[in-house]
């Protein structure tokens, strides 16, 4: 099987996972907020976490990590939803159940993201993923 | 209502993403038709199961149960009925395709049987699937989209939008896009079926409440027949001529409907996926665990649940259920349905476009057409096929329905040539060609399309649709099989062409037979016939009463015929496993298949002959059209 076919197989799996678990999780999360039921929203968060876990397993099977596009999309969506949450909280339109549901989502995702980085790259390695060294320091190592 | 357009946008972006990825992998046109025969086995398994079952099951299957109840148990055995032909054909057809380096059913029929008639017929079947069968489902989906949008989008606009999404990825990405995106679509569609059944159960107040509602219907003499199979057969003149006692759902109606379903697996679109698959390793697992097991369960339980909810309260059919959900859920479920229907429609359009251009137009009229131009023309044909479908959806929905109902029974007639190619070596080319011709006549004479056409020309048949409560697929097959047997008996000396002979030598040399399998042959026949008798045949009568006590109470807490169907679905999965693995009908063959090298021939100049063929085709068309008009004017009815 060619490298292209290999990449396509992985992408098909990722699309399928997020198309089902991600969107269903989002739906449950919103349903919980609409009905003021934290437990339903937490069920949605659990599905989203399950999608992440499945994504990491697929990455493991195909011996790869998150692609740049996936990372950008994930971090972008996280940031956008975070902004919506912060503005809604400031606007005072949220109930306590909404508030806890939001905190659960962002808290669990942030904790999960850090746990992923630390387990995959180690403490120092995880820091290095974001630490951009100045050009002269890089040249010193050469 | 922001969620439906938003999710629709996500879906459209995903399809275009896959179209782009696929076209880059294709090198634009080099592997457009068959994805370089590199479709992963697990993908082909999901695409075949999704295209065969998902969209149809939810749209048509649940509506049928919602309208007429459980009187047609073949619906609930769809997973097994579809797996059986797959077990029988897929491995051997794949081997033949590899040996002869062919990538579609039309090519295989031409190479093996040496018949242009069979090639043309398979192309016609592909077109009917693409334009009418898929068009009918897209039309139902467009109506659903219009309802969900609260009237913001009309059915016609929804049709066009859904059609544009569909045609974009098929035209750009070809088989690779259809295969890769089709896998995602199959997963989405299957998940949507499960979630919809869960919502239906919640809506009904749980499984016990659902069955309590069904029990109330069963206690009412006016609706009690919806939970019974109406006898083995009823000798009526058919729908539109004479109503059956109770309802049309007899045991033979179930058996013959299951035959129609089997037509999907013999259709050019499913064979396209089989022949584009990289290896036969997935066929056994695919037919056993995915088609019969997982998708079979979706049909036997989830589709039946959605239908049962609609049976109790018709307002809670598919549309009513979706409208009653939160907008994010109804939007996601709609996308799941859309994915299921577009998977089948995309595949059918590609198979039809390829059959028309690459397998009919090119060899008959324009053999010098380059590969790039062939792909371009196929893309145009795909677009035109969709346009025809959209126009029929909007302007002639009745004709669309009549044409769509021909797809399955006509495709089932291809089972005989496939049986001859893979198993029954004594069938001869003249017998198979004549048999299929009679099969087509049998179907047309018992389908509303044929009856309406004959009536237009002034010939009123004394029967209607499904005479004797038997589906046209079975009438066609009876004629097909009888003629094939008879003509084969008289034409045994007629030989095959060079490629046909090679295919027979190769297949029967490679799969000559293993003593262990031969010892199990009688067991296999016995259990298969027993299952067919009990699950689809006259044995269904037992299901009316098997799980009811003397007072008529339901022992399982559900309609006895539903319980019977679920029990026989489990038995069916075991049967498919036995046939696939123990009888080695679909088990993997781990041999390298070298390409067959035909004897070198002197190239012939085709230009003059092709010009002559074009002229004859045009004259034939003109004369045919004129004769039809004259006949209609002379004998036709207003």
TrEMBL record, chain A:
Stretches that traverse the bilayer: 12-30, 42-62, 71-93, 99-119
Keyword terms of this UniProt record: Membrane, Transmembrane, Transmembrane helix
Protein name: Uncharacterized protein
UniProtKB/TrEMBL annotation, chain B:
Bilayer disposition of the protein: Multi-pass membrane protein
Main location: membrane
One Pfam family matching this protein: SSF
Transmembrane residue ranges: 6-23, 35-58, 70-90, 111-137, 157-175, 187-210, 251-275, 287-312, 332-353, 374-392, 398-419, 431-457, 469-490, 523-541, 561-579, 616-635
A Gene Ontology BP annotation from the UniProt entry: sodium ion transport
Places the protein is found: Cell membrane
Reactions listed under catalytic activity: L-proline(in) + Na(+)(in) = L-proline(out) + Na(+)(out)
One cellular component (GO) term of this entry: plasma membrane
UniProt key word Transmembrane helix: yes
Protein's recorded name: SSS family solute:Na+ symporter
Tagged with keyword Transmembrane: yes
């Amino acid at each position: 099987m060619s490298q292209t076919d290999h990449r396509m197989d992985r992408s098909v799996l990722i699309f399928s996972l997020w198309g089902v678990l991600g969107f269903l999780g989002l739906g449950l999360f919103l349903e919980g907020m609409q009905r003021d039921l934290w437990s339903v929203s937490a069920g949605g968060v659990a599905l989203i976490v399950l999608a992440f876990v499945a994504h990491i397993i697929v990455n493991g099977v195909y011996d790869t990590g998150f692609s740049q596009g996936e990372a950008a999309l994930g971090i972008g969506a996280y940031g956008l939803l975070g902004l919506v949450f912060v503005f809604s909280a400031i606007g005072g339109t949220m109930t306590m159940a909404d508030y806890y549901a939001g905190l659960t989502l962002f808290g669990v995702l942030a904790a999960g993201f850090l746990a992923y980085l630390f387990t995959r790259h180690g403490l120092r390695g995880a820091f290095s993923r974001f630490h951009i060294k100045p050009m002269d320091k890089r040249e010193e190592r050469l | 209502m922001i969620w439906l357009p938003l999710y629709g946008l996500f879906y459209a972006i995903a399809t275009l993403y896959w179209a782009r990825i696929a076209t880059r992998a294709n090198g634009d046109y080099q592997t457009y038709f068959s994805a370089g025969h590199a479709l992963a086995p697990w993908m082909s398994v999901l695409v075949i199961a999704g295209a065969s079952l998902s969209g149809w099951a939810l749209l048509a299957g649940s509506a049928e149960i919602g309208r007429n109840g459980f009187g047609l148990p073949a619906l609930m055995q769809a997973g097994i009925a579809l797996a059986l032909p797959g077990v029988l054909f897929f491995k051997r057809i794949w081997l033949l395709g590899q040996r002869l380096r062919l990538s579609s059913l039309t090519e295989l029929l031409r190479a093996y049987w040496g018949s242009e008639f069979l090639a043309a017929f398979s192309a016609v079947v592909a077109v009917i699937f693409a334009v009418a069968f898929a068009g009918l489902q897209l039309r139902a989906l467009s109506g659903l989209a219009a309802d969900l949008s609260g009237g913001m989008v009309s059915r016609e606009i929804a049709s066009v939008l859904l059609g544009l999404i569909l045609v974009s990825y098929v035209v750009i990405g070809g088989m690779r896009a259809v295969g890769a995106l089709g896998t995602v679509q199959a997963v989405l569609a299957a998940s949507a079926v499960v979630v919809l059944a869960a919502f239906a159960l919640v809506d009904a107040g749980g499984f016990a409440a659902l069955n309590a509602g069904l029990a109330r219907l069963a206690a009412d003499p006016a609706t009690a027949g919806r939970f019974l199979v109406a006898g083995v057969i009823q000798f009526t003149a058919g729908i539109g001529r004479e109503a059956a006692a109770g309802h049309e759902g007899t045991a033979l109606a179930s058996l013959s409907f299951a035959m129609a379903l089997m037509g999907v697996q013999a259709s050019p679109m499913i064979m396209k996926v089989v022949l584009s698959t990289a290896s036969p390793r997935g066929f056994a697992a695919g037919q056993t665990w995915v088609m019969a097991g997982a998708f079979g369960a979706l049909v036997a339980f989830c589709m039946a649940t959605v239908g049962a909810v609609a049976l109790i309260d018709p307002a809670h059919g598919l549309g009513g259920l979706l409208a009653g959900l939160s907008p994010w859920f109804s939007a996601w479920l709609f996308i799941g349905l859309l994915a299921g229907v577009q998977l089948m429609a995309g595949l059918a359009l590609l198979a039809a476009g390829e059959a028309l251009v690459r397998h009919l137009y090119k060899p008959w009229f324009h053999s010098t057409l380059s590969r790039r131009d062939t792909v371009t023309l196929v893309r145009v044909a795909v677009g035109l096929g969709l346009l025809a479908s959209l126009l029929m959806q909007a302007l002639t929905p009745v004709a669309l329905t009549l044409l769509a109902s021909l797809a399955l029974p006509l495709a089932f007639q291809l089972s005989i040539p496939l049986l001859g190619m893979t198993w029954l070596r004594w069938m001869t080319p003249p017998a198979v060609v004549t048999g299929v011709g009679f099969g087509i006549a049998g179907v047309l004479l018992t389908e509303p399309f044929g009856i309406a056409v004959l009536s237009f020309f002034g010939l009123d048949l004394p029967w209607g649709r499904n005479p004797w409560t038997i589906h046209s697929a079975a009438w066609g097959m009876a004629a097909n099989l009888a003629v094939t047997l008879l003509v084969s008996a008289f034409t045994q000396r007629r030989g095959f062409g060079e490629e046909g002979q090679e295919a027979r030598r190769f297949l029967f040399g490679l799969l000559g037979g293993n003593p262990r399998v031969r010892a199990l042959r009688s067991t296999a026949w016995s259990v298969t016939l027993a299952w067919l008798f009990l699950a689809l045949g006259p044995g269904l009568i037992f299901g009316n009463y098997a799980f009811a006590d003397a007072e008529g109470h339901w022992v399982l807490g559900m309609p006895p015929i539903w319980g019977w169907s679920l029990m026989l679905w489990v038995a069916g999965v075991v049967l498919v496993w036995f046939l696939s693995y123990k009888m080695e009908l679909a088990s993997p063959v781990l041999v390298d298949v070298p390409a067959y090298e035909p004897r070198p021939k002197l190239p012939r100049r085709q230009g003059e002959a092709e010009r002559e063929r074009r002229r004859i085709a045009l004259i034939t068309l003109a004369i045919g059209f004129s004769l039809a008009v004259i006949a209609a004017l002379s004998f036709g009815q207003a």
